[in-house]
Each structure stands twice: as structure tokens, then as C-alpha cells.
Amino acid sequence: MKVMEEMLKKIMAGDRRSVARAITMVENRDPARYKMLAGLRSAGVNTRIIGITGPPGAGKSSLVDRLISEFRSQGFNIGIIAVDPSSPFTGGAILGDRVRMQQHCTDPGVFIRSMGARGNLGGLAPATREAAEILAASGKDLVFVETVGVGQSELEIMKLADTTVLVLTPAAGDSIQTIKAGIMEIADIFVVNKADLTGSKRLAREIRAMLHTTTREAAWYSPVIETETISGIGTAELADAINNHFQHLQSGGKLEERRNQRNQEEVVEIIADLLREWLNGEASEDILLNEIYFSLNKGEVDPYRAAEDILKLYIKKMGGVKIEKS
């Protein structure tokens, strides 16, 4: 108990080693993580979470590197979570995104953490949300979450971020890509990166045309910003757009709405995690659970009924309700 209290104090004081240890706990799905996260819940409520998503090779890491410099010049403390793809064979990840942010590694106002996706779909790692909460509690004003960059179905970031930035390049495909449902619909800000390449102006025009037909009545009109990470062109404009979007959310009551929705989704995820951990742990030796699986394998119950019975069994094990045997 005392050890946990000391750890919580160090995290909220911004101790880097304690923050790193806490993130490792959530990555390893340590059972003690729930108590730790609950203790950090009241801290970091004013932290802004900014999602950076887009296809592989769009220059997301280099753009984040530029944004770190821009927001550090404004006095913000920054946290970065960079999610890298994991091997489907070994489960390992190179975790190379931080290489592009080396200039900030010694800055005490910047904390960079790479995470492997570990086979998780949607662009984030299983522990990304919890890691963001830890960074927020440690005193970071802004937390950037850079997704894997898997393609058009990378939508999980919208459930986590206050502001979602979609980074595209002129090589992202033909004009049809700009009207496809999915990732194009979740962006609050569009970035055409590598704007020095041929076709960047055309891509920017196509995105604006798409926005004109889909968001004419929206209170927030998503800006399309052209950037060059090598020269830094457009970075200040992008930082202004991120700040403007946050002000828009605050003034219109949308910020509270987004965060309330995020809280509800987090509860659902925690329930799923608890049930999954129980099934993969002590439940494997449970006689009643094995009876349900036996009935399923014999064809006496269908998978939907089996799932319902397992949920009832879990509730009973947690001390909830009495179950009438059917």
C-alpha cells in the first residue's frame, strides 16, 4: 500500500523513472495497474490529447518532432506515445519512431515512449489509453499519440484524442481516396505533408472540395494545411490550428461531450479486459466454466447462449447476483 502511494506521488511529481515504470506496468497488464490508474484519475484532467494518424511513410514522426519544438517554444510540457507495428511471428517491434525525435530526448519537458501494437487493430497498442492517462497525471500539458499508420480503418484514435490530425502525402493515391469513408471522416485537421512534392497542391484542393460537400453545416470547418518537415514550413500554422480546435471544443461544449463519451468507452474496455483476464487466468480451472464449454462442444448450446452463461458466471464470481440454473 505504501509502495503504491509513493509511486503515485512520484508520478504526479513528474519523476521520469516512475512514469516509465508505470507505463511498463500497463503494457504488461499488471493486475495492480487498476489501483494505480485509479489513484492518478484526479490528476491530468486539463491535459490535451492530440492524435496524429495517417498512412505509413506520410512523415508523421518527423511532423511530431517539429510540433514538439513549436509547442515547447510556447512553454508546454509534452508527452509522446509512438505506436509501432509488431511482428505477427515474434510479437516484437522495432520501436523506431523515436529515432526521428532524438533532439528532444534530453529535454526534461518532453517524455517519449514507443509502444508495439502487439497485434491490436485500429492503430493503437492495447495500453495506449492507459499510458496517455499516466503521462497526463505526470504533468504533461499535451500528449501526442502517433498511430501505427495501417490505413483507412485506423479509427481507434478518435475515441482517445481531443483533436485528430490526419497526415497525407501526394503519393497517397488518386482523388477517389479523398471521398472514401473511414479515416477521412474522423479528422479535425488535415495535413498535406511533403508539400514540396508534385501533386501536393492538387491533393489539398481535392480534400477541400471533399470537405465543402460534407461539412458545409458544421460548426468546425477542418483546415487543410500544407507542411514540409525538413524546412519546417507550415508547422506553426498547424500548431495554431490545433490550439484553435481546442478552443472551439471548449467554447461549444464539445470538449466535455467528447471526454464523457471517452469515459464511457473506457468503462466498456475495462469490463472487457477484466473478463478476458479472468477467462485466461483462474477461470480456466473453473468447473462450471468447463461445463459450459463441454455443452458448447456437444452442440447442446450455441455460442451466444454460452457467452451469456459465461457472463452470468463471471458476475456471480464477482459477488454480484445469484444465478438460477437453467
Give a short synopsis of this structure.
The protein is of the alpha/beta class and 326 residues long.
Kindly describe this structure:
- The chain has eleven helices and seven strands.
- It has 326 residues and is of the alpha/beta class.
- The chain has two domains: 44-252, Rossmann fold, CATH 3.40.50.300; 262-317, no CATH class.
- Helix 10 (287-297) packs antiparallel against helix 11 (303-317).
- It is globular.
List the helices and strands and how they pair.
Elements: H1 2-12, H2 16-27, H3 33-40, E1 48-53, H4 60-73, E2 78-84, E3 110-116, H5 128-137, E4 142-146, E5 163-168, H6 183-186, E6 189-192, H7 200-214, E7 224-226, H8 235-252, H9 254-280, H10 287-297, H11 303-317
Parallel strand pairs: 1-4, 1-5, 2-3, 2-4, 5-6, 6-7
Helix pairs in contact: 1-2, 1-3, 2-5, 4-8, 10-11
